[in-house]
Structures are given as C-alpha cells and as structure tokens.
Amino acid sequence: MSIEALKTQLPAFAKDVKLNLSALPREDSLTEQQLYGLLVACGYTTRNGTVAQALEAEAAPHLSPAALDAAKAAASIMAMNNVYYRFTHLASNKAYETLPAKLRMSVIGNPGVDKVDFELWSLAVSAMNGCGRCIDAHEAVLREAGLSEAQIQTAVRVGAIIASAAVALEAAGAGFPEAAE
Question: List the disulfide bonds.
C-alpha cells in the first residue's frame, strides 16, 4: 500500500485530507530521510494499522533499514516519554518532576541515524501525543542544531495530516455519515 492507495480508502468527507496527503511527497523543506522518517514515525503514532502500513510502504524505498528502525523507535520511545513527561508537567503536585523517571531511553542518545532527524521525528510524535514538555525539549535541540522554524513547523504539519487520515478512516468505519461533496 502507498499514500495513493491510502487515499482511495478515505471517505468523501475527507477530501481535504486526501489533498493534504497528496502534497506530502512533494515537501521540499526537509531532507528525504527527514520526510520519510516522519511518515513512518507519525504513521505508527496514529495506532492505525492501515495508515502505518501504507506510510511505511511509501517510505521504505527512501530509507535505509537503520533509518526505518529509528523512525519506529522514535514513535515507540515517545509513546512512553510523552505519557510520563506530560504527567509530570500537568500534575499539580510538582514533586513528581523531581523524582527520577527510571525509564530506559538510550535510543535517544544513539538512534542509529543523524540525531537531528531523530529529534525531528520525536518532536512530531510528541506534538501528536500532546506533550508540551517534550515538544519544548525537542524544539530547543532542533533550533540549536540549526533547523528553521519553518522546517520544525513542517514536521508538525506532517504529523497533523497523518493524524487526520487515521481519524477519517476510523470515522468512516464507525458509521459516520459522509458529508455531501
């Protein structure tokens, strides 16, 4: 499956989602590895098998095996970190912020790909998962590494588009009526 095949599964009410998905492969503000790694990391973050499989199939020809694994690792490690650090940030009892996390996350320090790419994928996943503390941390690393605000915004936009595709598929499968075109 590919982005084109994924688009054929989207309902009529998701016309804008289809158009946004169509634009993803033409995104030119990111490197090929950054863009296609985003597709994989964000695809798995949706927890929608159809979306994840389609985006991995689209991305695989553009990524090394190490980059493909790193993109999946970004989705996986951020799933853990985003829950934990969102809790410590949102909890009224600030004592939780002082306790050691006791979470193994060595992949962040040694992701097997360019650290900037892994950070970019982690930022987009963190945005999808709604963890402000992680968003701020990854954005700071990316800005220090020289990425522009436009590149960072692009990564989050890619995540938003992918999230919308997953919701559209689920809404259609849940019997939501299609909007008139």
Answer: 131-134
Q: ∠17-54-59 over CA atoms, to 5°?
A: 100
Q: Which of 39, 52, 67, 131 is catalytic?
A: 131
Quote the CA–CA distance of 181 and 178 in Å, as a whole number: 9
CATH 1.20.1290.10 fits 3-173, yes or no: yes
Q: Are 138 and 123 in contact (CB under 8 A)?
A: yes
Which runs of consecutive H residues, i.e. helices, occur in 24-101? 32-45, 49-59, 65-90
Q: What pLDDT shows up at residue 173?
A: 86
Is 117's pLDDT higher than 80? Answer: yes
Domain ranges of the chain: 3-173
Q: How confident is the model at residue 14 (pLDDT cuts 50, 70, 90)?
A: very high
The overall pTM is greater than 0.70: yes
134 is catalytic: yes
CA distances from 126 to 26, 58, 97, 119, 122 (A): 24, 22, 18, 10, 6
